[in-house]
Here is the input.
Amino acid sequence: MKSRLAFFKQHMLPALVCFVLALAFAQTDWLKRFENVTFDSRAQVRARFFPTHPRDDVVLIGIDQASLNNPGLGRWPWKRSVHGDFLQLVGRVKPSVVTWDILFDDPSEEDALFARGIKRGNLEVVLGGARGETDQGFKPGAPELSKIRIAPLPHVEGDRTTMVSSETMSVPLLPLGEVADIAFVDAPPAADGVLREVPMVVRIGDQVYPGLALRSLMHHWHVTPEEVVVKLGDAVVIKNDFVNHRIPIDASGRYLINYRHSVLEEFSSAGYSETYSALHHKFVEKKDVPVPELTGRILLVGQTADALTDFGPTPLAPHTPLVFVHANVLENVLNGDFARRAATWPIWCGGFVITAASLALFAQRKFWQQVAFAIGVPAAFAIVATLAWAKFSLWVPVVWPTLGFAGAQIFMLGRRVLAEQRAKEQIKGMFGTYLAPELVDRMAASGVSPQLGGHEEEITAYFSDIQGYSTFSEKLPPEQLVELLNEYLTACTDIVQEEGGTLDKYIGDAIVAMFGAPIALPDHAYRACVAALRVQQRLDELRVKWQVEGARWPEGVRQMRSRIGLNTGSAIVGNMGSRTRFNYTMTGDNVNLAARMESGAKQWGAYTMTTEATKRACEKHGGDRILFRPLGRIVVKGRTQAVPLFEVVGLKETATSAMRECLELFAQGLEKYYARDWDGALSFFARSRDLEPNIPGRSPGVAGNPSLVYVDLVARMKANPPPANWEGVFVMADK
Here is the structure.
């Protein structure tokens, strides 16, 4: 029972929490936008690598550039008599319906000629209408609409309040509205501006009307409004003695477009001018010329020339003629080729099971295996989701399942780091049984057994830790890791003790020491700085040695670096612990601040960082032999007062001219930074960056330096300036 409970707490509970949170985040707008981006990418992959041939019973008549350039048609927008003549000719080839994705809602003196062409062509024509503005248009039942062919759909089931709607409509009036049916061209895009769905039906007032594609299909199938049932959240059902179709829609009446084509050449298409000329030559001039095959087909007339305005972003292209939207919808329905959204619960359950199993399976595996799995599963899932869309038009959500899985993997990595930290504590316990050599000597001389207790003393606290230790430690077998640690710790400890420091403890790879106790040293700050510089120099030599030894050590060892933090001030030092086991150690706020110097050095691209107190004490007893670089002022975790920071750069006698120039440029950049002169600061830091002693890519194990840190920080400050009361203080959020 206990083992089952432990399995649940360690593996199943984290996976459960991560996937519940991921599903909750999936309801937010920003995550929905991210999901839409992945959908667009899948649509583009399918269009490119899984092309299909469009139906030939949907024909696009494009108002293309050649049509605009035809002087015989006049200047765009053409006179409506041109459209009337065009339809009169089109009537000779008997298409099932001619649908115009163009608005003719503003009256024209040539509307009668347009209407006459429709009558003479004996055509079924659908003209576009649109939802009206708040104070414009006509309400259903208005006298102006009494003779207009705009019939609502009488059979609508479900909640109409979420539909695309308006109180008024803007439609062609008499005489056009008397000879052609009206349908709505409204296609509002998503929040990101991309058109992925189109209303199959819209609500005007209390009435529901068909969209452009649905009304065209009704003519194509000879279906009356009474034979159409709209079930919001399910489908538009079209059924009579001859046809039986279901068009899926969501609760608002929108249809998810299954985009397959966005290029004119992929459709059966012809230019407006080209079609007009061919029909005129054939039927007016009686010439024996070929004409487009249009009999029984849906003709969709719309703008395709780049110079025109009816364009917008779709998943396949940022600049798409919107007539293609309706063409894709028509082809989807005629083919029964509908897009579907995958159900949530199978994905949730499958992701939860895989994640929980991975937490159990990889708990004891090698780190690289876990990383490979953590990367491989989302990659495989993305491929499966892409294939599901390409082959089955199934929209599988990618973002939130990946987010849930990634959250669990991060938890597992954190748990491994915690386990490593516990291992460090075990090392600390083992080495903590040994007292500092100086204390042993004092105890032997006094003959007094160590007792619990402490006193206040001014010291310089010393903290060091290996950069990236957990990364390479797990790559080494235990005996080799112990050998490496012993070599490193011995070298560092010897230097600390040679400079008069007292070893406090080892915490895994970390070294904690103090200068100034138990033996009083007036120049303890100077000694600590010299010790830190010597340790860094010795580590340079060890890297060369490990590099020579080659493949015996992983790359992380051969590039190993250590970060050191120093601080000078009063602390409590003495024998602390239990009555049966204790150690000579230090504690207090100044000791904590030294630890912050070590952990915070990474943020500033430094490897030895100290406070102003240490710098002043060092200069008091060591003169100007040691070079310091000011890094800024920070408020560390747990404090409210700002602390000036300094990098211990090197010894004055060994400093190169490049190093001195670097420090001068950096100081000038810092001055500009405090003065809010962002451009000036960037200029100086960019110059000092190239003179830094540690440069990523050139110096082993180096990922940054103070100049690079300030280049990034100033750029962010320039983009988002600090408040007026800013004094150049940086607040550390982490320890």
